[in-house]
Amino acid sequence: MADRPIGRKKNIGEGGSGVHKRGDGLGGGPVGSSNGYSSGGNGSGSGSGGMKRSGGRSPLFMIIVIIFLLLGGGGGLTSFLGGSGDTSTDYESVAVPQTTTQQTTSQTGQSQTGFSNGYNSSMFDLFGSMLGGGSSYTGGSMASASWSDTPNTGKLDTSVVSGARAKRTTIKGNGQDTITIMVYMCGADLESRGGMASKDIQEMLSARFDDRINLIVYTGGAKQWQNNVVSSSTNQIYQIKDGKFICIKDNLGSVPMTKPETLSGFIKWGAQNYPADRYDLIFWDHGGGSTGGYGYDEKFSSAGAMSLAGINTALKDGGVTFDFVGFDTCLMATVENALVVSNYADYLVASEETEPGVGWYYTNWLTALGSNTSMETTEIGKNIIDSFTSACAQNCPGQKTTLSLIDLAELSYTVPSELADFSKDTSEMIRGNDFATISDARSSTREFAASSKIDQVDLIDFANKIATPSAKELATALKGAIKYNKTSSNMTNAYGLSIYFPYKKTSKVDSMVGTYEAIGMDEEYAKCIQNFASLEVAGQQVMGGTSSPMPSLLGTLGNTGSSSAGGNASAEMISQLLTTFLSSDFSSISGLSSSNTGFLGKGLDVDQAANYIASHQFDPSALVWTTNAEDYTCISLSAEQWKLVHDLKLNMFYDDGEGYVDLGLDTTFEFDEEGNLLAPEDKTWLAIDGQIVAFYVIDVQGDSDSYAITGRVPCELNGQRANLILIFDSENEDGYVAGASFDYIEGETETVAKNLTEINVGDTIDYVCDYYNYDQTFQQNYYLGEQITVDKAMSDMVIENLPVGEGKVIETYCFTDIYGQNYWTPKLEY
To answer: How confident is the model at residue 81 (pLDDT cuts 50, 70, 90)?
Structure first.
């Protein structure tokens, strides 16, 4: 049925080793917290907060147990360097104009010279091969269709809208232009763990260009560089010239690369020492989008990232106008970042989603530019994007990939007014008894770095789903400014620019409003997100719910499954609850406090909220297991109640005789012909190559006919905490392992790491699970099953559901309503 949540196919097999924890425990916080019930990471109390329950009392008196664990998503790569030295893997070629002075290459990655510090290149050929071969997965090429609107993938738009400002960079033509490319390379753990910066430097060295291009690289930010040239103790500046890596500025000190003054100093120095007709700037490192900003300097982790306001300061103080600014990072293709950069550049090249570990592929596009330094910037951007997406498709198929080129002159001319109109109309819908439409649209919109809960969504997809006239006009303006966009086949509804819109973590609303003020963004959008977040939080406060399955697990949930207010509260009662709530310290909502709830005072109309919530309440008392006409156990909800359900997940616990092994949250469910949710009775859970694993769904996109579901499996990969990334989609219903990402287990940074591209033969994997005592207390992590030594390609790993064993199984479903609040069904025991 169309109004039922989307689930993955359950492929049930036989055999397997069942469920068993191993060892004496690993310590640390819950590995399920990034998407599970045990995290405080939601910040809005929408169901993934700590173990709180209302138990029939007002949410104002709920006991809240918050277990905080920050899972930033990863670090660098392992096993990335070394190998045979054969780097002749073919990626998609870019057009290279032929000249009499410039040799071209069609082998992307074939190292013609070593990585030298101005000496004989053979002495410094450090890096070995590119990541070769890759998975044999054939899930498709670039996305050619989307679920809500005509895609703009793979279509170069060279038109210029009338009225947009002239480009700041003037191209001479006929190959006469000189170019200075500044690469700001904060190596971080990407380099110290996996040598990823070193590999990209090797790609730059393999490019062919003459002295019309000045390619200079500022290095720092890594505790250990994986080569014998770049210093790990001091920041430096290098030039790549004639296939050599030449240090031109040494002993710059060990200073944080996430400080704006460090970047602006490099920009000034580069322009003064390498004057040119065209300037380009590339940020290299981690990215955290509009909330997290740019960069993680692992030598100065306490310095934090460079915020959008910091980027604005650095570019302003640098005093240089750029042809394009690129972000070889995750998540920086945001409207907010584009509006900042538009003050200093003509184009932006950036990714909406987290980047696969290979990052940009530099050899081809630099070689093409070297052959024609008067190449139009749109062509340069297309070449960067084509070579990147082609490299990712070959080396890390299945991993989500996006990269887009934005005309900043057009964006700054067309988008702000359309965004303001859209924001006003959306605010009116929220205040005018139509919150559900906005909430429905937000919950189903393409989201990026979903497991990190940064609340960053594709703005065109969001506008398409709201579908008001102003939303359609905004989508049209955005599409016009996005001149080229390309994605992997599993990244439908990614059009090229994202935006922050709160849903999972309203604790960030105040700080984002401050960011908007700092960068000069129109206040109407700030008002819009304040209005939405206010009503969402109000709904969470009134509805209560249970953010932990433990009351269900212990049989203490009660008959209603929720607070006494949820499902049947009057507008008068709700108004009283909200009035009291607004005079409290807000701690009844996980992640909120008096220090981050300024948006409530600006966005919440108590009477309007009370009336709306009273008429739009999910009724948890209906979450009762009954039997249908065929005598199957089921839960029956009315059509109106199903309209209030945004999400549905199955949670399984395995009783091993000492406590509960938490096996995660999955989207396997079945409905009868009447649309009733059927109880699972097969006692199976997801397994990889015969071994049961803990599995947590991260992201669900699409509908029952065309969908993509992403999940993670907590593990230790070669001894380091990580997550395997699993993908299930319409073309690959049984799923496949797409790679892995490392975890930041100490909350070192709010930026999000690039993904590991491959799991290699010989790697070791120890699956990890959360373990709970019978009194519902989280105990610690344990290894789940036996250690695996990888002996096959990722594409050959078999994903199926296998029997969990002879022990007792307890299962409960989690329903999420339009306010993001969770409700757990009474337990099922087998």
So the answer is: very low
